[in-house]
Amino acid sequence: MAEQQVQPLHNEKHANKKVKNGINVEFLKSQHLMPVVAHEFARVATEFPMAFVKNTENGQFQPVVMFGLEPGENLFVQDGKWTAGFAPLAAARYPFGLVKHPEEDQFGIVIDEASPLVGEEEGNALFADGKETEYLERRKEALVNYVEFARVTEAFTAYLAEKELLVQQTLTVEIAGEKKDINGIYLVDERKLNELSDEAYLELRKRGYLAPIFSFLTSTHQVARLARLKAQRQAS
Predict the structure, then answer these.
(1) Has residue 27 been placed in a domain?
(2) C-alpha closest to that of 217 among 65, 66, 50
C-alpha cells in the first residue's frame, strides 16, 4: 500500500490537481473501527453497528462504527470495492484533512497527494485561475463542519459517561453456528436510561441527546449483519 503524502493545499502547487469521487478502499479494508459523530448516528444505524471505546490513557470515550468483528477486518470491502450504501464522515473526508495551526485557532487544509483519488486527468478541479472552485469550497465547508460535529460529539459522549449511562459489555454473535464474543466495547445502558428521573430525562431531551441515543441503541442490532457477512465470507 502506498504511503500517504499529506501536504498543505496550495493554489499554485495543486493548480492542476483533480479529485475523483469515492473513498479510500485501500485504507478502509484493514479498519474494523472508525470514529463517528453524533450528527450521523441516525444514518449510520441503518447500515452499521456502533459502540463506544475507551481510551486507556485519558479515560475518554469515543463513539465508533464497527466494520468488522476483529482488528484488521472490514466486512464491507469486497474485491477491492466498498459495498455499503454510504461511508461515515470520517471516511468521506479523504483525501482531505484539516490541521490546526499550533499558534493560532485556525485550521489549514491538507491533501494526500498519494491518494488514488488525486490526479490531473479526471475528477473535480480544485482551482480555476488560482481561485478555489465551488467543489473545493464545498469540501472545505464539510471539513470545518466535521470539526464542529466532533466537538459536539465529545461533549455528548462525556455527558453520557458522567451520568454513568455507558456500560462495558460483551457482544456475543453467532457465525456459521459458532458463538464468538466481542469484548472491550461500551454500549448505552438501556436499563439505566429507563431508570433516569424525569428531570434527568428532560435534560437529555433539552440537550438534543435523545435522538442520537436511540439511533445508537437501534444500531447495535446491526451486529447480526456483521455476523452474517462474516459467515458468507468464511463460506466462500
Answers:
(1) yes
(2) 50
At residue 190, the pLDDT reads 95
E strands, 22-160, in order: 33-35, 50-54, 61-66, 77-78, 81-82, 96-100, 107-112, 118-119, 124-125, 127-128, 131-132
Query: How many CA atoms are closer than 13 Å to the CA of 106, on its beta-carbon side?
Result: 4
Residue carrying C-alpha cell 447500515: 47
Residue 219 counted as domain residue: yes
Asked if the structure places residue 28 within a domain, the reply is: yes
DSSP helix/strand/coil, 107: strand
CB under 8 A, 24+ apart: contacts of 105-109: 107/143, 107/144, 107/147, 108/8, 108/9, 109/8, 109/9, 109/140, 109/143
The predicted structure's pLDDT at residue 143: 93
Helices 198-206, 210-219: inter-axial angle, 10-degree rounding: 90
Q: Domain count of the chain?
A: 1
Q: Rounded CA gap, 39 and 18, in Å?
A: 29
Task: Specify the pLDDT at position 1.
Answer: 43
209 pLDDT more than 60: yes
Candidates 98, 97, 90, 80; CA nearest to 33 is 90
Omega within 30 of 0 (cis) for the link into 102 = no
Residue 46 pLDDT > 60: yes
Whether residue 1 is contained in a domain is answered as: no
Which domain does 122 fall in, by range? 6-235
Which residues make beta-bridge pairs with 34?
Answer: 65
Burial class (CB in 10 A: 0-12, 13-18, 19+), 79: exposed
